[in-house]
Predict the structure.
Amino acid sequence: MKKISVMTVFVLVIWMASAFRDRHNPSGPGNIPSDRGGKDEKMIKDSIESVKAFLKVYKVLMSPRCMNCHPAGDAPLQGDDSHIHTMNVVRGPDGTGMYAAKCSNCHQPTNTPGLHTPPGNPKWQLPPANMKMVFQGKTPRQLALQIMNYNLNGHKNKEQLIEHARDTLVKSGWNMGEGRTPPPMDYSAFVSVWDTWIKKGGYAPKP
């Protein structure tokens, strides 16, 4: 009789604990949110749209108009064939050149008139030496992960990355002067796919 009483109390305690858990845990058994499936489907849809947008972004970033200022080495690149910059120009600690070969010596606030003359912008420079933000040689996945990494992208959060596409130096890639091939989509289309990529989650393509 004593054993039966103990078993009865034991079962009762388990039942009460189970009821308390389900009541206070919205994701517990019998309390799965009805929109869970919808959220998962939206996440999958967003990731697909994000990756598709980035693959379009990638084509722009790998064009000479963008990649020439994001080289793997410390010398900027030139031309549609992305050859090494003449005059022994190098990055320098802050990205503005070294000694007498400063970027601003040739690259004025506006484009210099004429064929293949130096394009201009008040901000003209490479990324600084301590955060080179290399595009050259990167796969789509590598570049996407780098851009979305706060410690590798110039310390920009998602909002700042979205704003960065509207920076005058970025926009100047579509106005580099005579004799230069523009990026493979127009500027407004680039901003649109850039925004979509980031707002849909900033996903990186699979390897």
Notes: The longest strand covers residues 77-78. Strands lie at 77-78, 83-84, 97-98, 101-102. Residues 1-34 have pLDDT under 50 and may be disordered.
